[in-house]
Amino acid sequence: MSWDETADRLVGAGADGEDQAVEAALRPKDLDEFIGQERVREQLSLVLRAARHRGATADHVLLSGAPGLGKTTLSMIIAAEMGAPIRITSGPAIQHAGDLAAILSSLTEGEVLFLDEIHRMSRPAEEMLYMAMEDFRVDVIVGKGPGATAIPLELPPFTLVGATTRAGLLPPPLRDRFGFTGHMEFYAPHELERVVHRSARLLDVEIEADGAAEIAGRSRGTPRIANRLLRRVRDYAQVKADGVVTREIARQALEVYEVDARGLDRLDRSVLDALLRLFGGGPVGLSTLAVAVGEERETVEEVAEPFLVREGLLARTPRGRVATPAAWEHLGMTPPADRGAGQGPGAAQQGLFGA
Asked: pTM of the predicted model, to two decimals?
């Protein structure tokens, strides 16, 4: 299961159609309005101001980080700051070099090309992109076999903004051609509170400070999730209360949607519950854990596990997945007496299940 396929989770960082529509209305228009990512904003501001001062096209930009942190928004801000149009596409949509050549040949001077999930682009297109980024030209192959001819096609200067959730999958030759690389960090709670207040104002939602803090604390460090939770809490407040989002209303609403105080949802808690109750805290193999919760291995590994590890509730070891003391505490359970010796029931089962 990919990030896009998990967009229907309330705390999933993928964007569905509703999210995209709301994000368009809530999206900041310039760097001063953009909340969080202080270091990236400062560095990017210098790059763009220097390019404007020279009257030149901005350097190519690579933005990496988890979904929902603002990579698409920053790409649009780059275009706005440079006074240039933006073309948006994605790596999976470019499966042949001809697909990329068609896009590049239609760019105008100074235009920003935003390439989302750039690590998923096909290898032939990737190799064509090297020359386009460096020399602003591509070689279009006409014909097949021994009679094939390469026709050089000059391109106007443009700015490529690449976005990736897995920067490690980008080959070094591609990474090296970006003039600026920015890594998007997860947001601190106080930054998400500002995001919630701003979004509430734009959505005409009356919200109290403690209500915004409650939503921010359950948003997994991700603005997209914070905006999604705000909309669901708004719905609850309008139907069940007087429309004002307070801390208590936010708590009640998110209990209905099964998002707990640390931002865990049903899937996250199912993984932890199975790990603790069935396997004594582990270690246990990922495939076995996935079967226990009735999900695909990829779903547990790519959707639930990263957040549980980041929260310090689960650890990955050579012998398998292991629950931390914080996991036992979060679910209100007491670890077995022999956990201190590292010999819970999961350890005995490890020989059967493997990692």
From this structure: 0.81
